[in-house]
Amino acid sequence: MSAAPPPPPSPSSAHLIKKPDSLPDAIFTALSLFVIFSTSPKPASLSFPLTNIKFSSPLSQRKIQKMSSRTTQSRNSQRLVPVFSTPQSLSDWLKPRMSADLFGAWGIKPGTKNVHNLWLEITEGETFLADSSPPVRTVEVVIVRIIRSDKNKILIESHQELSNGVVRDRHRPLSEKMKPGESVEAAVYRALREELGSILKIEGNVKIIPGSYVKKVEERVSASYPGLPACYVLHKVDTEVEGLPEDDFCTEETSEYGGLDQTSWVDFAVSCKKHYWKWVNYDSL
């Protein structure tokens, strides 16, 4: 008869946790478990710094930029007033937002324009009004500095003759409000045609001096519309124009409102009929 197989080896006491029989043993056992788990290796962390997050493609960044742009445009659009159907509707909107005395001087005080002028500017997109009290008028203007480098002279408009017979002092270089979407170069040629075109063919006689462009923003009360604060975005360019008279001269405005369809309202606006020009020393401005 073969011998019975030996009994399996009993587990080592080192691998067993003895059931505590008393309170001190229970405390000892808890401490042992804490030491075992606290010294065990930890799994690799799955967290990563936020600075390493990148957009999956440049398109994502462009989308965010577009959203930011749309948000900015939305904020700005909330400040702009709606389109006015008539000069009277614009007048009704302005009255509670402006000083009655100053608003009443429009078109009456010499050298000022009237609400029909402002309405035409808004209708053509040349002027924007912010919905505030008083409203703020924003307009982009091209300033064309005509230089005679041989004699260190610059052409300025000394004064204007308006349609109501008033003479308005200017003493500044040729300037013109810009049209919506118009480039600076296009605005330069249009301004020269409108204000000097009665005595000179502009095409082929104008040279824009490279590197002369300067952009500047000025905030002041509008001289044309008393009591109406204005933000002027000025685009300054130096030019040379061939064929201009060497002495003081006068030109007729060709089309200040000639391109507008609102002919019934143009007749009520104050317009410029003649421009008077003179050459001054370049350093005098």
What does this structure look like?
- The chain is α+β, with helices and mostly antiparallel strands.
- It is built from seven helices and ten strands.
- The protein has helices spanning 23-38, 58-79, 87-94, 100-104, 115-123, 184-196, 263-266, and strands spanning 127-130, 136-148, 153-162, 167-172, 174-177, 206-208, 214-221, 229-241, 249-252, 272-281.
- Strands 1, 2, 3, 4, 5, 6, 7, 8, 9 and 10 form a ten-stranded mixed beta sheet that branches.
- A hairpin with a 4-residue loop joins strand 2 and strand 3 (153-162).
- Helix 3 (87-94) packs across helix 5 (115-123).
- The N and C termini lie far apart (131 Å).
Shape: globular
Overall residue-averaged pLDDT value: 78
Give the amount of beta strand, in percent: 25-35%
> What structural class do you assign from the helix and strand content?
alpha+beta
Order of helices and strands: HHHHHEEEEEHEEEEHE
- Termini, distance in Å? 131 Å
The tally of strands reads 10
Layout: helices, strands, pairs:
Blueprint (H helix, E strand, L loop, with lengths): L22 H16 L19 H22 L7 H8 L5 H5 L10 H9 L3 E4 L5 E13 L4 E10 L4 E6 L1 E4 L6 H13 L9 E3 L5 E8 L7 E13 L7 E4 L10 H4 L5 E10 L4
Helix pairs in contact: 3-5
Q: Key features?
A:
285 residues, alpha+beta, ten-stranded mixed beta sheet
Please sum up the structure shown.
This protein is an alpha+beta fold and 285 residues long. The protein is built from seven helices and ten strands.
